[in-house]
Amino acid sequence: MAWRTILSLVWLVAGGAVAQQFQRASFVSPAAPSIVNVIKNNGGRHVLHGAGVLKPTTALWAKKPKANKAVKGGKIQVKLLKYIEGTGSVGDVVMVSPAFYENKLKKTKSAVPITDEQVLKETAEAENKEAESKDAALELCANLEELESLEIQRKSGPDGHLFGGVQQKHILEELKKAFPKHESMLSAKHVKLASIMDAEGNDVGHDIKNLGEYAAKLHILKDVEAEFKVSVLQQK
Fold first, then answer.
1. For 167, what's the count of Cα atoms within 13 Å in the CB-facing half-sphere?
2. What is the DSSP secondary structure assignment for residue 190, as one 8-state letter?
3. Which first-to-last residue range defines the signal peptide (predicted)?
């Protein structure tokens, strides 16, 4: 009987060690599904049952692609980079069909998709830029009105008729020299002389041909104009 008792103890100890080994091996990272063995104690005996599957506790999902916010109701909102007949002008934001965008606008680099957020941002930036331009224009206007006279020297004949004349570009160049701070604004295409009047109130156009005093009006912005005097003197 003693040998049976000893054998039972050995079997029990050995079985417990195996169970502990399988129990330690049963821990698997939830991110990686694995097949593990399950050990159950059946009436003091450790019995190996069939394999079990440890399912991950955290599901792994692929990230969904972000929706194109420029697409609305089956159409694409785009900003035109070129004039497109029947569609719009440069800078216009319009809705077009995906086919029209892919087959024409995109291929010719005539437009780019734009979201509502981008439209709001660009609108705010444009308004800020316009406000800055308006402030600079008003400052230039005030400076011109304070100017006593813009003097320009030219050679002339005995009768005061100029050799070559004074044109709009010459007056603008002299203004840039007088107001270097506003050189960039005075170089803008929309800045031009609206009129030049002689002492008798006659409009001489944009080409002064005689010595004398003139009243000039400069168009700076849509609603900003400044008047100043131009004195064409004999060159010494």
1. 3
2. T
3. 1-19
SS3 109: coil
Closest Cα partner for 171 from 146, 154, 190? 154
- Convert the pLDDT of each residue in 67-108 to its tens digit: 556 787 889 999 999 999 999 999 999 999 999 999 999 999
CA neighbours closer than 13 Å in the CB half-sphere of residue 72:
11
3-state secondary structure of 220: strand
Structure tokens belonging to residue 92: 């216009």
**Residue ranges of the chain assigned to CATH 3.10.430.100:** 146-234
- What top-level class would CATH report for the domain 146-234? alpha beta
Q: Which of 146, 174, 145 is nearest to 232 (CA)?
A: 174
pLDDT per residue as tens digits for the range 43-69: 444 444 444 444 444 444 445 445 556
pLDDT given at position 51: 44
Nearest to 143 by CA among 227, 207, 68, 60: 227
User: Residue 134: what pLDDT?
Assistant: 93
